[in-house]
Design goal:
2 domains; four-stranded mixed beta sheet; Rossmann fold; 346 residues; eight-stranded mixed beta sheet; elongated; 14 strands
Length: 346
């Protein structure tokens, strides 16, 4: 007999829900509740946060302390709660439009800071609540309310975005691949740090029918054709793969090569040059390229910017460039990299 105790985590008095028949959001809500129940997450130790959109209504159906935030601000609210109350489990239930578009900046930095929260993204590849406009994950070429000739832009690749900097946990699954879906939910909830589950879902009324599907089941079979499951842990996922990509720690940076610093020749021992003599060292006829800066002369023959040329944009070889460099976009450190060979006489 099926265990239905997960319903303790749902506000059944608010049912039936407001989502369209065949919508994948109900499956997301139900399976997340089941995963939480298995781990003992409940109203005593868990907070749910949502943004705006059809998916954003999920938190309102959870029998937990829940917050319905302004558009794109679900992650900031969730991270704040976790910072103030680290003893609580914090989950985010929202959609691709809220998380990856207006909330995209927060997605970048919340993941970078590795906040210990779990995000479930109902990725139906469309703006559903507002009528079916192209969203951030809408595949290129898809006809929508705002792209009648086909979406001209490539979608944001959440899997690439969220697996660039360890530690990370990114899972891609779908509402059709149920067992895989449940595995991803459980693994994400157990992960210590920021975890993100990208759930490919359907919006039959405002996306599927424009694509030519008559039922949600036809969209599910389409998901099965578009994607295949890869077993085991991966570093990254290809765009047609369903699986889990994770990395525990960031690779250690390569050791910085130590540059030997040669002691500078005392000014009194430097060869003196007049400004007229300096002009002779302009790089022509195989001569070295010298320039003066703050009374000292540097050999910049090795500079690729002056290589074989008398001029470099507005700078002229064989000249005192002190005034020029004071207003240049680069600093004087650029000059100090080159050998010191003399001083201005007088």
């Amino acid at each position: 007999m099926m265990d239905r105790s997960y319903k303790e985590l749902l506000k059944l008095r608010r049912f039936p829900h407001t989502w369209c028949p065949g919508c994948g959001i109900g499956s997301v809500l139900r399976n997340v509740a089941m995963g939480m129940k298995d781990l003992g997450w409940d109203y005593k130790n868990t907070v749910a946060v949502s943004g705006i959109g059809c998916s954003g209504r999920m938190s309102g159906y959870m029998n937990l302390d829940a917050i319905h935030t302004p558009h794109g601000r679900a992650l900031t609210a969730a991270e704040t709660i976790k910072t103030v109350r680290p003893d609580l489990n914090v989950i985010v239930l929202s959609g691709d439009g809220d998380l990856a578009s207006i909330g995209g900046n927060h997605l970048l930095h919340t993941s970078r800071r590795n906040a210990d929260i779990t995000v479930f993204c109902n990725d139906n590849e469309i703006y559903g609540l507002t009528g079916g406009q192209a969203g951030p994950t809408t595949p290129k070429g898809t006809k929508t309310l705002t792209s009648s000739r086909g979406e001209p832009y490539s979608p944001i690749r959440l899997g690439r975005l969220l697996t660039q900097q360890a530690p990370y946990f990114y899972a891609r699954t779908s509402v059709y691949h149920l067992n895989h879906f449940k595995t991803c939910i459980r693994e994400a909830l157990l992960w210590k740090g920021f975890s993100f589950v990208d759930i490919i879902s359907d919006c039959i009324e405002l996306n599927g029918r424009r694509l030519g599907f008559k039922t949600a089941h036809q969209m599910f079979k389409w998901f099965d054709e578009r994607f295949h499951i890869v077993e085991g842990e991966k570093d990254h996922l290809q765009e047609d793969e369903l699986g889990i990509a994770k990395a525990m720690t960031e690779e250690a940076p390569s050791p910085v090569e130590k540059v030997e610093v040669k002691p500078e020749i005392p000014v009194k021992d430097l060869k003196p040059f007049t400004l007229r003599e300096l002009q002779e060292f302009d790089g022509t006829e195989g001569k070295p390229i010298y320039i003066a800066y703050k009374g000292k002369i540097y050999d910049i023959s090795a500079s690729p910017l002056f290589q074989g040329e008398k001029r470099m944009r507005c700078h002229i070889a064989g000249k005192d460039l002190t005034k020029d460099l004071d207003i240049a976009p680069h600093g004087e450190d650029l000059i100090f990299k080159f050998p010191l060979v003399g001083k201005i006489e007088g």
